[in-house]
Amino acid sequence: MTVPLPYRVVSNRAETSDTRTIELCPVGEALPSFSPGQFAMVYAFGVGEIPVSVAGLRDGTLTHTVRRVGAVSRALCEAAPGTWVGVRGPFGTGWDLSAADGGDLLVVAGGIGLAPLRPLVRAALSSPGGRGRLNVLIGARTPEDLLYREELGGWGRPYCGVTVDRAGPGWSGHVGVVTTLLDQAAFSPRETTAFVCGPEVMIRATARELLHRGVPAERVRVSLERNMHCATGHCGHCQLGPLLLCRDGPVVGYDQAASLLAVREL
Amino acid sequence: MKRTGLLAAVPEGPRGRLMELSREVSFPAGTRIFEEGGKANRFWVIRSGSVSLDIHVPGRRAVVVETLGPGRLLGWSWVCPPHEWHLGAEATSQVRAWEFDAAEVLSLCERDPELDHALLSYVVEVIGRRLRAARTRLLDLYGPYGSEPEP
Fold it and tell me: Which residue of B65, B136, B144 is in closest CB contact with A18?
């Protein structure tokens, strides 16, 4: 859907000091259903439009977790319940959960990269299907920057690990880069599908470690971010080499992404 | 027990000779295993539990910079001069480990080139991995603006 439809903010709650989760429901006509990993273009009237991953899908509502970094994201973070916004979508490739059938599932998130992975984890937990073990590895800057804290306790089947870069006085958990959690995860590399989202340096470090451990590159699925503008593959703002990430991404296989992420200033 | 880390990296023969020098130890949660600047005359391979590595910040409490879990090598400062710990280490849970006396291991390495090569290759890899991790964290990746492109 390339024309924005009006949605209403039904809830807005703080995740961290600069990040909020807003829930939207259609005012009238609803957009087609989203898949985990896809994104919407959310328009704050009079301010502008930004791409936001879907962080939750339930009964026609859309949940987005937004970090306040610019004018539009600030407007969305400050949108009180009842506020109308415009939403276009669904856009982009999603996490293909069925790709993990017959093997283990590894979810690796860094920072706000956990938001687009959240619906994937929820889907995997609600429909175990023919998949093996689910491991969720999460890296955050500090304990205070951790998203969805109240949910994480239910994700540990068999392992949900959290690590932070900087521990506070009350933190007794793991400290270090997210890849160090791989030692605690139980998975068979050759039969594992990994879903990775976070800053691109973290994606590269994680993907390299996974490849080193024997996970095939095409089974490492990564979500890439570029400046998406039209979301329909026309304007070229999100071009990454041969890819238009709003159309061909944001989720691509690392076999395709590796060489692109190695090019300077691409 | 599945071999990981150091014990997986060293071939069976030299691993056996190395393990003859080991002794099983345990540390209750909260034990200070070593202190920054102390003499690095031992090292450990963690069997269970976790250990936090910290650095002293004058006037403030020590800051944890890394956590090590099962299979990981605890301590590499014994390999090269000045043989002093760069960081402090504390058991964050009940820890079981194999402990090695550095002088005994280095002495064995002088007589056993196969062990010497395998052990030091592994230690160098560990140092490299921790250096890469430290550099990555210096980028402050998960910070509010860490993933933003340059203006």
Answer: B144
Here the ipTM equals 0.80
- The phi, psi pair for B15, rounded to 5°, reads -65, -40
Verify whether the Cβ–Cβ distance B142 to A140 is below 8 Å: yes
Both structure tokens of B19: 């393990």
Mean pLDDT, contiguous 10-residue spans, chain A (266 residues): 90 95 95 93 95 90 94 96 95 91 94 95 87 93 92 85 89 91 91 94 92 95 89 87 89 92 78
Other residues' Cβ atoms within 10 Å of the Cβ of residue A68: 18
Do the beta carbons of residue B97 and residue B6 sit within 8 Å? Answer: no
Instruction: Give the residue ranges of DSSP H helices in chain A.
Output: 71-77, 114-126, 149-152, 200-213, 245-248, 254-261
**Closest in B67, B136, B144 to A67, CB measured:** B144
Backbone dihedral angles phi then psi of residue A70, each to the nearest 5 degrees: -155, -170
How many Å apart are CA A140 and CA A119, to the nearest integer? 19
Written as one string, the DSSP assignment of B107-149 is: HHHHH-HHHHHHHHHHHHHHHHHHHHHHHHHHT-TTSTTTTPP
B69 touches chain A (CB under 8 A): yes
Query: What whole-number distance in Å separates Cα of residue A209 and Cα of residue A104?
Result: 17
Nearest CA-CA partner of B72 in B57, B51, B93: B51
pTM: 0.89
* CB-based contact B96:B26 (threshold 8 Å): yes
